[in-house]
Amino acid sequence: MKEIERLLPGYNCGECGFKSCREFARALLKGTDRGREIEIELCPHLGLEKHREKRAEIEETLPRLRRLLAEGRGGEEGEAEIRGVIDGLAADFSLAPLPGEPSCREDVHPFDRDLEFEVGDVLRYRPLGCPVTHFGKVVKIDHGLVTVHVVGPRHLLGDRDFAPLDVGVSLVAAFEGVVLRGRVPGVGETVRFLPDHCMMQKVHSGVIVHSEGRMVRIEGIDLKVW
């Protein structure tokens, strides 16, 4: 599955009908999902000229991977390596949401201190250093840090009743979630991680300040990774 995911555009736009490129890659490998046939044409971006070579590679690779899957040799157990799509960097682990939550938790610090909002509001912001505008639903407000679930952007933009509060450029100070794949780090470690909900599928870095079971909190978030 990772071999296919690596070749997808990595936009996590949802236009294929799946929440992420990872989910689309998994369905594409199986060939069906909930009784419907899954074909490469579901991704509109693969029809663009700039993705022509990657599409051709997917079309060439899929029959082999599907055959391995049918033989019981194409599972995800052997896929130890975790890499970002946009930068190709290796990560220590991928970060998934806490149980029952829609995305990893982000602690956001808006630079505009005159703004007022409350739990349940949806904020429109661009994380410092990230070119993608995010939409986050406020879960908690504590001493200037706003904890949000990322719930967009794409599927919210067409909702007429949707009125987000624009808070501008903001600093993402922390992530909380569950280590889905890769090793569970210890407190104090500087790590590279890949948030499952990241629309660019870009590797982030930070420092582990809490680790309990597979649940971790990462602070000092940086998009610059060496």
From TrEMBL:
Domain 4Fe-4S, first and last residues per copy: 1-60
GO terms, molecular function: 4 iron, 4 sulfur cluster binding; metal ion binding
Signal peptide range in chain numbering: none
Pfam families hit by this protein: FeS (PF04060)
Domain of life: Archaea
Keywords, comma-separated and alphabetical: 4Fe-4S, Iron, Iron-sulfur, Metal-binding
Protein name (Swiss-Prot/TrEMBL): Fe-S cluster domain protein
Organism lineage: Archaea, Methanobacteriati, Methanobacteriota, Stenosarchaea group, Methanomicrobia
